[in-house]
Amino acid sequence: MQLRRLWTPLFIAFIVATIAYSENVVRPHPHDNRIHIVYWEKWTGFEGDAIKQVVNYYNTHQNKIHVDLLTISGIENKTLLAVAGGDPPDLAGLYGPNVTQYADDKAVLPLTPFLKKYGINRSQYIPAFWDEGTVNGQQYALPTTPASTALFYNRAMFKAAGMDPDKPRDWHNGNYTIEEMDKDAEKLTKRSPNGQLLVAGFLPSEPGWWNWGWGYFFGGRLWDGKNRITATDPGNIAAYRWIEHFTKEYGTTNLSSFKSGLGQFSSPQNGFMSGKVAMEIQGVWMYHYINMYAPQMCGKDPQFGVAPFPFPASRPDLKGSTFSDEDVITIPRGAKHPDAAFQFIRFLESPKGMDMLCGLQWKMSPLIKNEPGFYRNNKNLLAKFFAEQAMGKNTIPPPKMSIWPQYQNSLSNAYDEVSLLTKTPTQALEEVQREMQPQLLQWRQQEALRAKAEANH
Amino acid sequence: MRNRRRTTLTALAFASPWFLGFCIFMVYPLVASIYFSFCDYSVLRPAIWIGAGNYIHLIHDNIFWTALINTAVYTAIALPVGLIVALGLAMLLNMKVKGMAFYRTLFFIPSLVPLVALAVLMQFIFNGQYGILNVILRDLFPFVHSQSFPPNWLGDPAFSKLVLVFISAWGAGNAMVIYLAGLQDVPVQLYEAADLDGAGFWAKTRNVTLPMISPVILFNLVMGIIGTLQVFTVPYVISPTGSPERSIYFYAMYLYDNAFIYHQMGYACAMGWILFVIIMILTLLSFRLSERHVHYGS
Fold first, then answer.
1. Domain ranges across chain B
2. Residue A6 included in any domain
3. Which 108-127 residues of chain A touch chain B by CB within 8 A?
4. Could you give the number of structural domains in chain A?
5. What's CA A296's distance to the chain center, in Å?
6. A interface mutation test: which of B50, B138, B144, B147 has the most A CBs within 10 A?
């Protein structure tokens, strides 16, 4: 009987103990007299190891702040929910294209006051990378690891097709145009006797991360920066015609089956590394992946080369067009220790911090002045080339608009329609225009509405 | 009297954790979502009342209609296919054959595969270049020299929805088990009487089996309507943008995108309530239409 009476208190005690224990596991209270800041970062693998090393270095080289690094998948959504729930991390490593949307939603704090206080400014950075974190004149994010793009080409395949293996580099003489690349792509393309595509000379959809931006390579623009979507800009239409010609040449099903057979980017079955795609647009990271998954392509006489992406013959002013993008670091709204969080940002954005992080990730630095020997010692032999690319006048950053995710999906649909030949480039882009113009105006109205409501509060 | 009151209080105390949870996690979000559907609300900034603005915007939103039509087409095909496949399997597995427990387990196992794993597996099977299905098709039809054969199933808008219907039928095991339970409840005397009247397999199926399990069919129909109209995981894993050409971009995917990718939670709430009303109408319609055909007899 007495034992029975004990059951309820025992049960309650068990529940309370479990809660207390789990709370302690999740939120430890270390007694080291340091401010603990929580840093969510998305990187895994060698990129994750790099930030771990940087954080460890920071934690062991000062005694006021301790950065608790946590690897988070789907970081943009989880940060959003954490901010909405009032319990965000002190630092969140978002993606560059997120910045405008998150700044508009006031999910991240403006860093401008900190930057002014510590004398960090645009002149210290490659402009394209600083600007991606600027929204309405305020800085909301700083670059962590930046990237630009260029044309990767398979030298061995050029040689086998009887061409100069470094022909794309002719760009320096102003010769290599998109038209020329298309001709070379045709020479490099291989088909089976029944017409099945075996090797593609070039595919605009490989790797497919920048399908939204081909218009810029033909002088197009996606919006006027204010209230007008310009999807039907002649440059965009020219780009989509160029995309269309690949399907016409290879055949719809043939091409789509071929693409579905290409392996994942981060694998030896990657189209470029497995020799199924002879040329493709890729970023600064590619060098590391080739080293990892296709080491046979490296060596003294490498089987691949890199050149700035070609330009249309009629538009020499578009020489050196390159996508510029980056991962960024932000302080979410509601962070418990924004000042301490910025101290870590300060270290990370110093030449020492940036060189450590970017060097360990085999990338270039977003800074103009780096530690001596940064590029000389960088394991990525192409890092300097990509940094120079990003310093050119034809950088293509993701458009800074809150509705960019919608716009990107709409463009991706247009890309499908054109590459499956169900719509002409003009029809497909007109559809994008019809879809996105009202969205843009709605976004502007929302902005006005929200500003008014907040002013009234 | 005191005793009774005490018993009631004790019962309420035991039910209170559930009740509290129900109120916090179900009632509040439901009511709040009605309110938010009339607001401009991004989750991160205070909600601003805009009246029927979201609903009016939905009417003019092409992508909303594309997603709705895709979902309707998918439901119109996947629902009957799922019901028929599950019923057919249940009838086969209701026969008196040796080792039936083994067969029943075998046919139920596919429905235990997690949806994400299923989506990845199906992408392998239906891959245009190396998929096992196309390898078999090429071997079976070596004389077909068309560039469009075999098709790239998931890359072709003409086939992508059908692949999803196939995947949904793959998971028919749950409905099958419910049918099986219903089939086993059909009194044997009815079949014996039908046998005496000289009824064959089809006559027995039409006049005995189907009427007797009609409540189970109705249940599976309603659950099927609810499930297929909310299809999300498999198409989202295959292509978050519903590619090719938004052919597998479904209602729940657009709702999710609005809520969590586009930060338009108010708009997503409005979409959620429209879906709720559609499901409600279809369910009521099924009940109304079934009145004449469903027999709740003993």
1. 62-290
2. no
3. none
4. 2
5. 27
6. B147
Is the predicted pLDDT of residue A171 greater than 70, yes or no? Answer: no
Label residue B244 exposed, middle or buried (CB < 10 Å: 0-12, 13-18, 19+). buried
Range A424-427, long-range pairs (CB < 8 A, 24+ positions)? A424/A244, A425/A237, A425/A240, A425/A241, A425/A243, A425/A244, A426/A232, A426/A237
CB contact under 8 A, A253 and B245: no
pLDDT one-digit tens code per residue, A383-433:
999 999 999 999 999 999 999 999 999 999 999 999 999 999 999 999 999
Q: Which CATH number fits domain B62-290: 3.40.50.300, 1.10.340.30, 3.30.420.40, 1.10.3720.10?
A: 1.10.3720.10
Task: Tell me, yes or no, if A438 comes closer than 8 A to chain B by beta carbon.
Answer: yes
Give residue B296's pLDDT: 78
Q: Which of residues 390-419 of A touch B (CB under 8 A)?
A: 402-403, 405-406, 409-410, 412-413, 416-417
Mean pLDDT of A224-236: 96
| A183: Cβ contacts below 8 Å, ≥ 6 apart | none
pLDDT, one tens digit per residue, over B75-88 is: 999 999 999 999 99
Average pLDDT over residues B31-35: 97
Name which of B101, B83, B97 is nearest B174 in CA terms.
B83
Q: Rounded to a whole number, what is the distance in Å from the CA of B45 to chain A's nearest CA?
A: 6
Instruction: Tell me which residue range forms the domain holding A166.
Output: 149-323+400-443
Q: Which of B273, B237, B278 has its CA nearest to residue B255?
A: B273
ipTM for this model: 0.89
Q: Do A422 and B155 touch (CB under 8 A)?
A: no
Residue of A nearest to B153 (CA): A257
pLDDT at A168: 78
User: Which 3 state secondary structure label does DSSP give B85?
Assistant: helix
Structure tokens, B38: 């009339």
DSSP A405-424: HHHHHHHHHHHHHHHTTSS-
pLDDT value at position A1?
A: 55
CB-CB neighbors (< 8 A) of B262 in chain A = 403, 405-406
